[in-house]
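This part of the workshop introduces the protein records we will be handling. An example says more than a description, so a record of this kind follows:
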Amino acid sequence: MNYVFNKSAMGYLHKESKTPCQDYSASYKDSERTIITCCDGHGGKIHIRSHVGSHMASNAIINVFRSLSYSELKSNNEEEIIKKIKLNLLCDWNRQVEEQIGRKPISKSECRELTINKIDALKDNPSRAFGTTMTGAMVMRNKLVVVGIGDTEVIGVRKGKRIRFLEDENDPAANVTYSMCQEEAFKYLRVKILDWRDYDGVFLCTDGLSGPYQSYENFDKSFIKPVILKTLKTDSLSHVSDYVDEVANKIGIGDDVSLSFILKDGTVKRHYK
């Protein structure tokens, strides 16, 4: 058995401005696999439906991961499997975008604050309305699959150490991030297939949670390790849920907050003290 958690909470600044929660997270479990997702819609004027885009990104991860078989993951042709996962994720997300626009075309009222140039950009590429990051993880037997595009964190933990699975020195800095809606999304979408036996857990979180800690070292010491230790000691996830709410409502930066993780219940406590 594993501890499986996911929660998204609206940040206090979004509540004050009465804007939709841009984050979306989910979890899924069947007899073969456990899946978690964590996606962050960009917000901003041109991304007028990014709160829907993040939900669709989460759906795409679950749909694609559910379609994978263990025999595919353990095949020697890893490069081809990774290409297939990336392509299927993009196809599923774009399919949902097309279906959503078909049901509910973008209206003039939604574009009332956009410049003519941005309206033209939306006409050229309607998926920009749904701009979002996408991250997910799946455990299937001894395999761990992680996917990501954008600045949402994908973190592994092993014997008290944090590993950033999808770190890339060429990633954009500051407030610039890659997106499911950009034309070269396939190029920037990253996938890794790992051995689950090498890790104690995998964590996904949006920048509304990691941002207030200012550095990866502080986030590791002040958040990840205490969460793991308290979960193992109490055999409960209620404290994690309460803390996500506290960050969103009081002690964070006002942004929406999402956290998802899978943690092995046999993890050694002393590594996280």
